[in-house]
Every structure is written in structure tokens, then in C-alpha cells.
Task: inverse folding
């Protein structure tokens, strides 16, 4: 049995919670981002879709930033090995997130169909790439990567791609896609909602099957079956199953189902990883244990106090935001409204005389 | 280029780019909150329009800052893994605190502010923008505490060749951090204030929306003058502290090569362009002024680059311990020069505004448009000075930069990310710049255009 201290376990759990929180929250805005272009048939609908995550996505993404910062603070060796080892994958994720984030902000800033269409592509790809690559990354973390005795990753980008890890990527992509469709079903009204429902009903079983395949594969890879991971995997699958059943009728239940399922889907992976932070495919002697990866006891105490004070407050006000923006959105809310910049553009066109005949402007 | 140089170029480019938006966002968020407070108190429509106008510009800057900010956190591990292993026990803590204490507040309350117009009560809505402003300031404190530990390590002991935290209190109250925080926040207010003054000047010259822009100017000018003067003042003490903590950086900044009593302040110097030219070809000085500025005594001693180099070689082993002197010398002067011009601009503007002659002073207003570039030049130069002046150290006295770089990331991967980030950032700069200037040029939305029925949409997408 590896030696590890209580605080190291606390921080392993806390970092798991941060990642799980990130995947539940940003998971649905990844899905919404992918769906925005195809599900919204006109500008008003697309704006309604964008507004469904507008006040939330930035706060969701901070979960990732805090997960990264917490890993750096509590397990610097893990942070260093993981981030330098998965260099190009993380670079791709960063580029995707940047494009997506500015896409949300810039989409409506010009009244041009071409402009919007380009950003819709940017948002869709910028959401799909991390949804896929995070799954690949986590499959690599638990599945093992070439790590030498100095805790350095000695492979390249393509060593991260194997049938197992690609399976993990496809599963996470499908899960977040369906999770996003359910979110839209829950948060919109009218035609968008009907379309979101249709997408959710179709995509949910696919996500469930892929998730099951990945979980079974993960359990099958264990040297001796870890009973706890079997239990969490079963809970995850129960969540996905509930989501499949309710996707067409009760979106709130279905969404709760995917949220719980995502939580346990990743909890299964964290338990599988415990008590290590990185697994070496070269030699089990190179596996990075919690104790090896960890900061000093003093630093963990400091961070525990800080997290103990702040995390409840964060949950409180983030929860409040979701309450404030709880009502459903429909295209009707956005049909006749233009942003100030649209009006500016319209006026400029008018002034240049290249706008079509304005009704009533002739006389 | 070597792996080290590649990693350094990438860090330099991504960090300077990120820091265009950071001070602008901090400054604009603060003034937006101020304008909204004025609206809340007076109910005067012009303050509402000012709030929305400057708030929109803040959002463009904020979006860019957030998008480029994640890169900042990730690249320590990606490109500087040995550095991360060395400092992780200490450096990670303020980073995690920044996320927990500041970023969550910032992102959540900004969402509430943007989408909460008309949905939240006026008071709660006002508190939201103040929460955003204060959290941007708080985040600066944590990241500067982390950076200051690299400038002046405190509260640690060395265990197995790695730095281990012994006092978080020492790290968070590091005098280097407190000075750097004051200097940076004042400079951020200066940046926001100057951008507001510059854009207002452009509109006032065109007699456009004089109520909104004249009022914005009147609020901003005294704040601008005060923050500029204070930035310089704190900067001075920062320099004095640096002379104590990193004498080599300051010797390079003033191109003092030999330890001298009664050192003069160099106004213009040339030397060979290499990392340490060991002396100057030409140097125009004001006698004794440098000694006087640093200690208040005209005949005091100022340590020189060559003497310090010999001292460090004895202490830390053979090697070159001077930064690229020309870079330190000129970045230092560019920063201070821009700061002084800004202080002058602020003071003249404040005086004109008190005399009620602001809106007719065409020359001043024209100057204001161009002066808006100065804070960005100054803060870039300041960071180049701070970081390049510390070389060859990444953590002063403890870890050399060359030993911090990721040993296992192949050069081609860093080339890919370096080119990728640079291209992406270039394209985004053009797009964001266009949007920013178009918004800025068009002025506030006409009354009613921002839509009072569904007011939340005026700010949003």
C-alpha cells in the first residue's frame, strides 16, 4: 500500500470535484456551442441559444482555471508532468477555447450573415475540440502514458492516441453533446425546444452506449476489479439510462440524469487513478503516487483553509446566478431586437445608400 | 533558436499580449462602476449612457483578457515544467487563490451585470459591477504576489533542491508584492482613465454627445492626474527597493558599470548590443542625480554591473549575471518617459477642466487621442524591464531561467504553439481592435435605442 496523508487525499478529492464540476457545467455549454449553428435556423433563434448560456459559460470555465491552479498548488509534480507531457493536446484545447470565447462575444457585434456564420463555425469547433480532447486526455491519465523514472513524459502527441483513448474522446464528445441538447430543451421554448428535444432523444442513447463501452473497457483493464469503480460506473449508467428515458418527456429529470451520470462517469475514472496522479506505461515503478506528486503538508493546510472558506461561498453565488437566469428563452424574445451595433450598421448602410429601399423612407 | 529561447519568446509574446487587456479591463471596470454609481445616486440619464458606453468597451477588453488568461496559467506547466516543480509548493497557492477568490466572482458577477439589466434591482445591479471591479483588482494582487516571489523569494526553505513554503503570510505580505500591487493598480487606473480621456477627446473635438463625454472627462481627468503622479511616486520607491533586492537589475537600468560614488543619471547612452557590453561608448549624464534619487544623498555609492557580476560569480559560481543591459536601460526609460508625459497630460487636463476651458482646447483634445497609446507602451516596457532585468534568474538567486524550461517538450512542438498563438493573437488583435474602435467611434447609443423594454439585451450579444 502506498503511503499518503489525509490532506493529500482531501486534495485529490477536491481536484476531482473541480474537474467533475467543470465537466458538468462546461459540458452543457460545449454541447450548446456545437448545436448553435445547426439548431438555430435564424438569427433570433441563434441569439436565444447563445443567451441560454450567455451569463453562465464564463463562470463555468473558471472551474477549469481553478482545477489547473489547484493541481499546481497541491500536486506540482502532477501539474508539471501532465501539462508538459500533453503539450500539443493542451495547445489545441487552448486555441479552441480562445476561439470559442471570443466567438461568443463577437458573434453579434456585426450585422453580417457571413461574419456570424464564421463565428458559429468557430464556436462549434471551439466547443467540439475540447469536448473530444478532454476525454482523450483523461483516458490517457488513467490508462497510462510513457513516463520515465524522472517523472517526465517521453512520448509525443501521437502516443496519446490509441483505440482506448479515442474511445474516451468520442464518449465525452457524445456525452457533452447530449447534455447540451438537454440543457437547451430545458431552457428554451417554442420551435427551438422541439428541435432540441429531437436532438436529445436521438443523441442520448448514443452517448449512453459510448459511455458504457468506455466504462466497461476501463474496468476490464484493471488488474483486479475494483468494486467501488463498479458501483460508481453503475450509478453513472443509471443516470444515462434515466436521461434516455426522460429526454423526450421530462427534460429537467433527464438533465439531472446526465449531470449525475457525468459526475459518476468521471468519479469512476478518478477512483481508478487513485492513489496515483499519473500512470506510467513503461514501468509501474514510474507511476506517480499522491505522496510523490504532492506539495508540502504546510501548503496543503493553507490551501485547505482557503478552499474551506471560499468554495461554499462560490457555490452559493453561482447557484444564485442560475436562479436569476432560470426562465426559458425563445426566439420571440429576440426577434425584433437588434444590438446597438446592428443599428449602427444599418444606419451606415443607409447613409451610403446601399441598403435596400426602406419602407416609408422614400418620402 | 534553442528550446530555452523559444519558450521565452512564447512566454513574452503571450504575456505582453495578455497584459494589453488586463490594465485596460481593471481601469475600465473601475470607471464604469463609478459612472454607474453616479447614475444610481443622481438618476441623471447621461451617467446611465456613459455607464453603458464605457461598459461595452470594457466587455470587449474583458473577453480578450479572459480568452488569453487561461494560456497564462497553463503555460507554466507546459513550457516551464522544471520551474513548476521547483516553485510549485509556493507559486501554485496564490494562483489557486486567484481563481477561488477572484475569477469566480469576476466571471459570475460580470454575467449578472451584463444580463441583469432590468432583471435585478438597481442596487443589486450596481453591487454586481463593483464586485467585478474589486475582484479584478484582487486578482492582480494574487498574481503579483506570485510574481514578486520570483523577484524576491521570501517565506521558504530549500528542501531536496526545491523551494518549500514556510510562511504564506510572508509570501502574501512580501514588500515587493505590496509595492508592485500599488504600482500596477495605479497604472491600470491610469490606463483606463487615459483611454476614456482619449476617446472622449475624439468625440468632444467633433462636438458629439458633449454631455456624456464632457462629464466622463471631468470625472476621469483628476483621477488620471492623481494616478499618474502616484504611479510614478510608488514606482520610485519600487526602484529604491529593487536596488536593495536586485541591484543588478537597477545597475543595468541606469547603465552603471563600475561602482561609483556620486553616480550621475544617464540621459542617453550607447554601448555594444550584447548581453553585457561591460561598458559604454557614449553616456550623457546629469552629475550626482542618480545617487540623489536613490538615497537622497548626492555622494552615495551606486553598485555597478561589473562589480556585481564579480560578486555573484563568487557567490553563485561562474557565469554571466548581467541582463541584456541595453534592454533594461531603454525599457526603463521608455516606461518612465511615458509615465511622465501622462502625468503632465493629466495635470494640464485637470487644470483646463477646472478653468472650464477643456472643450475648447482643441490642441489638448487632439493630443489626448494620441496619448491614449502611452499607458500601453509604458506597461509593456515595465514588464519587459521587470522580467528581462531579472535574467539570468527566473527566481532571483535560486533558479536560473535555463533550468526552468520543460526538458521533454521537443522544439517542433514549441514552434507550433509559438507560431499558432502568435498568428491567432494577431488576427484577434485586428478583429477586437476594429470592434473596439467602431464602438468607441460611434459613441453611446441614442436614448431609447438601448431598449428600455428589454434592457438586458443592450449589453449582451
Result:
Amino acid at each position: 500500500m502506498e503511503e499518503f496523508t489525509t490532506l493529500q487525499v482531501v486534495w485529490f478529492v477536491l481536484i476531482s470535484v473541480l474537474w467533475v464540476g467543470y465537466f458538468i457545467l462546461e459540458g452543457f455549454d460545449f454541447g450548446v456551442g456545437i448545436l448553435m449553428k445547426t439548431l438555430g435556423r435564424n438569427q433570433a433563434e441563434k441569439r436565444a441559444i447563445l443567451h441560454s448560456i450567455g451569463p453562465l459559460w464564463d463562470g463555468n470555465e473558471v472551474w477549469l482555471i481553478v482545477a489547473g491552479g489547484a493541481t499546481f498548488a497541491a500536486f506540482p509534480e502532477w501539474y508539471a508532468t501532465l501539462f508538459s507531457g500533453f503539450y500539443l493536446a493542451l495547445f489545441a484545447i487552448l486555441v479552441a477555447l480562445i476561439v470559442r470565447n471570443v466567438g461568443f462575444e463577437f458573434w453579434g457585434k456585426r450585422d453580417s450573415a457571413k461574419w456570424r456564420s464564421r463565428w458559429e463555425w468557430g464556436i462549434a469547433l471551439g466547443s467540439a475540440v475540447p469536448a473530444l480532447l478532454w476525454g482523450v486526455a483523461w483516458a490517457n491519465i488513467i490508462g497510462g502514458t510513457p513516463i520515465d523514472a524522472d517523472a517526465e513524459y517521453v512520448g509525443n502527441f501521437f502516443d496519446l492516441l490509441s483505440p482506448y483513448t479515442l474511445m474516451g474522446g468520442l464518449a465525452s464528445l457524445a456525452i457533452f453533446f447530449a447534455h447540451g441538447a438537454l440543457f437547451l430543451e430545458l431552457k428554451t421554448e417554442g420551435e427551438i425546444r422541439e428541435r432540441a428535444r429531437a436532438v436529445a432523444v436521438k443523441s442520448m442513447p448514443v452517448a449512453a452506449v459510448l459511455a458504457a463501452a468506455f466504462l466497461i473497457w476501463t474496468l476490464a483493464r484493471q488488474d483486479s476489479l475494483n468494486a467501488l469503480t463498479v458501483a460508481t460506473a453503475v450509478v453513472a449508467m443509471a443516470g444515462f439510462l434515466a436521461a434516455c428515458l426522460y429526454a423526450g418527456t421530462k427534460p429537467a429529470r433527464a438533465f439531472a440524469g446526465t449531470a449525475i451520470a457525468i459526475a459518476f462517469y468521471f468519479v469512476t475514472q478518478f477512483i481508478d487513478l487513485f492513489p496515483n496522479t499519473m500512470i506510467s506505461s513503461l514501468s509501474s515503478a514510474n507511476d506517480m503516487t499522491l505522496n510523490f506528486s504532492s506539495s508540502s503538508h504546510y501548503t496543503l493546510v493553507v490551501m485547505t483553509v482557503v478552499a474551506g472558506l471560499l468554495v461554499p461561498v462560490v457555490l452559493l453565488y453561482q447557484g444564485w446566478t442560475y436562479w436569476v437566469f432560470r426562465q426559458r428563452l425563445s426566439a420571440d424574445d429576440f426577434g425584433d431586437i437588434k444590438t446597438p451595433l446592428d443599428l449602427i450598421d444599418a444606419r451606415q448602410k443607409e447613409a451610403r445608400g446601399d441598403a435596400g429601399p426602406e419602407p416609408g423612407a422614400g418620402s | 533558436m534553442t528550446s530555452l529561447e523559444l519558450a521565452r519568446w512564447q512566454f513574452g509574446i503571450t504575456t505582453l499580449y495578455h497584459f494589453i487587456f488586463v490594465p485596460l479591463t481593471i481601469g475600465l471596470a473601475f470607471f464604469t462602476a463609478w459612472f454607474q454609481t453616479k447614475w444610481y445616486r443622481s438618476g441623471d440619464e447621461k451617467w446611465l449612457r456613459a455607464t453603458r458606453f464605457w461598459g461595452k468597451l470594457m466587455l470587449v477588453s474583458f473577453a480578450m483578457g479572459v480568452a488569453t488568461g487561461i494560456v497564462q496559467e497553463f503555460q507554466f506547466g507546459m513550457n516551464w515544467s522544471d520551474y513548476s516543480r521547483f516553485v510549485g509548493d509556493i507559486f501554485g497557492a496564490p494562483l489557486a487563490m486567484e481563481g477561488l477568490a477572484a475569477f469566480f466572482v469576476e466571471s459570475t458577477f460580470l454575467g449578472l451585470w451584463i444580463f441583469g439589466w432590468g432583471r435585478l434591482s438597481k442596487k443589486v445591479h450596481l453591487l454586481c459591477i463593483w464586485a467585478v471591479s474589486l475582484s479584478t483588482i484582487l486578482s492582480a494582487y494574487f498574481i503579483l504576489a506570485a510574481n514578486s516571489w520570483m523577484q524576491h523569494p521570501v517565506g521558504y526553505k530549500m528542501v531536496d533542491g526545491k523551494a518549500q513554503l514556510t510562511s504564506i503570510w510572508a509570501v502574501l505580505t512580501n514588500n515587493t508584492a505590496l509595492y508592485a500591487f500599488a504600482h500596477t493598480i495605479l497604472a491600470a487606473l491610469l490606463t483606463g482613465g487615459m483611454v476614456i480621456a482619449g476617446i472622449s477627446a475624439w468625440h468632444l473635438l467633433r462636438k458629439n454627445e458633449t454631455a456624456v463625454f464632457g462629464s466622463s472627462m471631468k470625472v476621469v481627468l483628476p483621477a488620471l492626474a492623481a494616478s499618474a503622479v502616484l504611479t510614478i511616486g510608488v514606482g520610485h520607491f519600487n526602484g529604491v527597493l529593487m536596488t536593495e533586492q536586485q541591484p543588478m537589475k537597477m545597475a543595468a537600468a541606469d547603465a552603471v558599470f563600475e561602482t561609483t560614488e556620486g553616480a550621475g543619471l544617464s540621459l542617453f547612452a550607447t554601448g555594444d548590443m550584447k548581453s553585457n557590453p561591460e561598458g559604454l561608448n557614449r553616456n550623457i549624464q546629469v552629475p550626482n542625480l542618480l545617487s540623489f534619487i536613490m538615497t537622497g544623498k548626492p555622494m552615495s555609492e551606486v553598485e555597478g554591473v561589473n562589480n556585481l557580476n564579480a560578486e555573484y560569480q563568487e557567490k553563485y559560481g561562474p557565469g554571466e549575471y548581467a541582463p541584456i543591459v541595453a534592454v533594461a536601460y531603454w525599457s526603463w526609460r521608455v516606461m518612465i518617459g511615458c509615465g511622465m508625459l501622462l502625468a503632465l497630460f493629466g495635470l494640464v487636463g485637470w487644470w483646463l477642466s477646472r478653468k472650464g476651458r477643456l472643450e475648447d482646447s482643441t490642441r489638448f483634445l487632439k493630443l489626448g487621442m494620441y496619448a491614449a497609446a502611452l499607458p500601453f507602451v509604458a506597461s509593456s516596457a515595465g514588464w519587459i524591464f521587470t522580467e528581462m532585468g531579472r535574467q539570468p534568474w527566473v527566481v532571483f538567486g535560486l533558479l536560473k531561467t535555463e533550468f526552468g524550461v520543460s526538458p521533454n517538450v521537443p522544439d517542433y512542438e514549441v514552434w507550433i504553439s509559438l507560431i499558432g498563438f502568435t498568428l491567432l493573437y494577431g488576427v484577434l488583435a485586428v478583429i477586437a481592435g476594429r470592434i473596439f474602435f467602431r464602438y468607441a467611434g460611434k459613441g453611446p447609443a441614442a436614448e431609447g435605442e438601448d431598449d428600455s423594454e428589454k434592457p438586458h439585451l443592450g449589453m449582451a450579444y
Remarks:
- The radius of gyration of chain B is 23 Å.
- The longest helix of chain B spans residues 3-42.
- Chain B is about 70% helix and 5% strand.
- The first strand of chain B starts at residue 156 and ends at 159.
